[in-house]
Amino acid sequence: MTEHNVTAKQAREHSIELSLEQLIACQYWAKESIPLPHKKTRAHLVGGHLSPFKGRGMEFAEVRQYQPGDDIRTIDWRVTARTGKVHTKIFQEERERPVFILTDLQDTMFFGSRHRFKSTLACLHSARAFWAAFNSGNRVAGLFSTANEHIELKPSNRRQNGLRLLQHLMELHNQRLDSVYSEANAYDVNQNSLEDMLMRLRHLVKGGSLIYIFSDFMNLTDDCRQHLTYLSQHNDIYGVMIADPLEASIPVPGQYTLTDGLRHIRIDASNKRDMQRHQQAFLQRVADIRQEFTRAQSSFALCSTADSITDLSLDPSIQSNLQLKNADMNTASTLSEEQR
């Protein structure tokens, strides 16, 4: 199947394993434009976004008094005549916006009780983010990580490199999926995986970039928080937490064993008190993660495997406004409503 033969239906396929056709089809669900930078940019490449840097360009910015070295062709004669002092027009240049996509494929992501695995949903949204950025004329970079493997693709606005990015994402996901469910004792959690990605990103990113992070944030450490704070100073960060309804509520009574890869606990789903503790623990974790992104002046969204692909807006300002309308105490019921 070629790129031109894929359909929107394939982007919605409920599957554990990914195909390149699915990731290509995600362009049908990436019609949104990449938002303009909110933080001061240091990028110097021409593109489709307005830069805070003032100079000669396409968009008028302001009028100020003439300074030695200003181009006399930009003198505003009307303001000069009105004020009696020479004024010049300043224009705002269009510059591209680098977009970095961080996809966390820890083993905790290879789980799902609804339409798809958390890992699959993270990859589909990563592909949507790629297509939205690419179609806006931006350079896109990818950082993908499992418990024991890391892939890094530098920013590029070439279609061929973009398809290679999607290919690497698909292969990394499917290879880890095979390992988790085919090999004995293959389940592994690298507590430093997200931290390592963020640390590496600090060396790659330039100011004015948009950073998407798709993860369940099971391994959000104190060092991760420091990296987020540093990166958010000159970049816009959009953290998307991928969750599953069973993490919020267990609808079928019975005895269950839960694990985070390091610890194991037993829970009685017929015990109302245990269920309340389970639900409250999830709500508290979501609230804590949201608070960390808020402290870093970054955007945050919660996304469920029960959701449709298009339920998540790629514009963090739009998504934040939508989710702020719902209180945290409704999170669990929102995630589990479709499962009942």
Identify the notable features of this structure and list them briefly.
340 residues; alpha/beta; six-stranded mixed β-sheet; three-stranded antiparallel β-sheet; disordered C terminus; DUF58; DUF58 domain-containing protein
Task: Describe this entry's structure for a reader.
The chain is α/β, with parallel strands linked by helices. It has eleven helices and eleven strands. 36% of the residues lie in helices and 21% in strands. Helix 7 links the parallel strand 7 (210-215) and strand 8. Helix 4 runs antiparallel to helix 5 and helix 6 (193-204) runs parallel beside helix 7 (222-231). The longest helix is centred in the middle third of the chain and has 24 residues, at 159-182. Mean pLDDT is 80; it is low at 1-8, 40-58 and 336-340. This is DUF58 domain-containing protein. It holds the Pfam family DUF58. InterPro entries: DUF58.
Helix percentage range: 25-40%
Regions with pLDDT < 50 over 5+ consecutive residues?
1-8, 40-58, 336-340
Percentage of residues in DSSP E strands? 15-25%
Note the overall shape: elongated
Quaternary state reads: single chain
Count of alpha and pi helical runs:
11
Query: For the CA atoms, what is the radius of gyration?
Result: 23 Å
Mean pLDDT metric? 80
